[in-house]
């Protein structure tokens, strides 16, 4: 089967800083690195490295050829990524000595995906394929509706979080993943807790505590592995990509989540985003305390 990802593609400019800047503070960075990023690209690379066939639906600007080349190198099908006039999206990311971060996003070409492009891509999808989206592109509702009508397993990673964006796609979802704060925000906005949602699979990520999986409302906990984190950027995307790949390969959800926990634990020990996501061999061979 195939994972179809309507997803963002960014240049991630990562600044290593002694602490996260306060309002009005000018802060000298220790280092600057440029990585392939965007929640969409991260998830595509993670799912591909976990052994899934991934087709990415997105857009880059005239400055984005390098991003296409890297996605292709990492095993992602880039035939459905359009070249547009808007500049490629980018993110300015500050990472402190504890591995915590803050991020400024410029959407750019990620909001220039056309309906024709989306339709042409999904016309090649087969019933049983997975479709995943995040809140960094346009056409999320259209894609969710189309995927539902085509019999795809429709998945949504609710970040960056906007309650109205999540509520708009809820009727079409088979799988929802969000973090603990986002789950609280969704409940405040909609009056529904995650156990009230009529969605078969819901995962609430709990950061260093792990993840909680709800199957038709029934919870199961998956503790995180203990590691020394140096950079949490992209860890959630890595987790999601690995879970989706496990679903695509027919794994029981418990096994898919456990494998995704291992991948995310490895990811936080590395500086960077898509370019440093671990592959399946690394995940299987990793030793944890």
UniProtKB/TrEMBL annotation:
It is found in: Cytoplasm. Residues 6-278 form the Carbohydrate kinase PfkB domain. Substrate binds at residues 10-12, 38-42, 136, 237. InterPro entries: PfkB_dom (IPR011611), Ribo/fructo_kinase (IPR002139), Ribokinase (IPR011877), Ribokinase-like (IPR029056). It catalyses: D-ribose + ATP = D-ribose 5-phosphate + ADP + H(+). Requires a divalent cation, most likely magnesium in vivo, as an electrophilic catalyst to aid phosphoryl group transfer. It is the chelate of the metal and the nucleotide that is the actual substrate. ATP binds at residues 179, 205-210, 236-237, 261. GO terms for cellular component: cytoplasm. Coiled coil: none annotated. Pathway: Carbohydrate metabolism; D-ribose degradation; D-ribose 5-phosphate from beta-D-ribopyranose: step 2/2. Keywords: ATP-binding, Carbohydrate metabolism, Cytoplasm, Kinase, Magnesium, Metal-binding, Nucleotide-binding, Potassium, Transferase. Its cofactor is Mg(2+). The keyword Hydrolase does not apply. It is an enzyme of class 2 (transferase). Activated by a monovalent cation that binds near, but not in, the active site. The most likely occupant of the site in vivo is potassium. Ion binding induces a conformational change that may alter substrate affinity. The active site is at residue 237. One of its GO terms (biological process) is D-ribose catabolic process. The keyword Kinase applies. Catalyzes the phosphorylation of ribose at O-5 in a reaction requiring ATP and magnesium. The resulting D-ribose-5-phosphate can then be used either for sythesis of nucleotides, histidine, and tryptophan, or as a component of the pentose phosphate pathway. Homodimer. Belongs to the carbohydrate kinase PfkB family. Ribokinase subfamily. This is Ribokinase. It comes from Ruegeria profundi. The gene is rbsK.
